[in-house]
Amino acid sequence: MPLTSMPTYDDAVALPAYNAMTVPPEFEDRNGHMNIAHYLTVASWGVEYAMQAAGVAPDWHETEKLGFFTAEHHIVYLREVHVGSEVSVRVRYVGRSARALHLQAFLLDDTNRVVAYVLEVMAVHIDFRTRRTSVWPDGLGATLDGLVAEHETLPWPAPLSGSLALR
């Protein structure tokens, strides 16, 4: 993924913020920046919160016996993030099939106004009764389709890795 195709901070910050936080001291590794595990953790919780905003209740797996799993992901580290930095996750919905969802989470270093990390995700809808993929429920599917359509109109292309594709 060429760095020239990455959105600018101003591009990405226009998306809704999820999982905004101040990087705590315990996230620092021996290299003096946020440990790689925490980039993934912060971004993946941003995806979780974005899905909640789209209509997936936090207890959906218990009440409806439905949920979603990450089937694949691709990660790009662009900038170091340091303890004390304000960060937020911005989610772009890229595409959807009957059983899968392609999206990207951008970890923004809001203190330094840079895109620090990109998590590209292929998520699959799961029926917990069978623990197999299943079709997205109609209402949620329509909401996801609307988000994909809305994000297709963004004035910057999604910086896709090319390694993930809807099936």
The Cα radius of gyration reads 16 Å
Helix content: 25-40%
Mean pLDDT: 95
Distance between the termini: 21 Å
* The number of domains: 1
The rough form would be described as globular
Number of DSSP strands?
6
Look at the helices and sheets and give the structural class: alpha+beta
Explain the layout of strands and helices:
Elements: H1 9-12, E1 17-22, H2 36-54, H3 60-63, E2 66-77, E3 86-96, E4 100-109, E5 114-127, E6 132-133, H4 138-152
Antiparallel strand pairs: 1-3, 2-5, 3-4, 4-5, 5-6
Structure, explained:
The protein has one domain (8-152): Hotdog Thioesterase (Thiol Ester Dehydrase, Chain A, Roll), CATH 3.10.129.10. The protein is 25% helix and 33% strand. It has helices spanning 9-12, 36-54, 60-63, 138-152, and strands spanning 17-22, 66-77, 86-96, 100-109, 114-127, 132-133. Strands 1, 2, 3, 4, 5 and 6 form a 6-stranded antiparallel beta sheet that branches. The longest helix has 19 residues, at 36-54. The two termini are 21 Å apart. The mean pLDDT is 95.
Jot down its keywords.
4 helices; six-stranded antiparallel β-sheet; Thiol Ester Dehydrase, Chain A; alpha+beta; globular; single chain; 167 residues
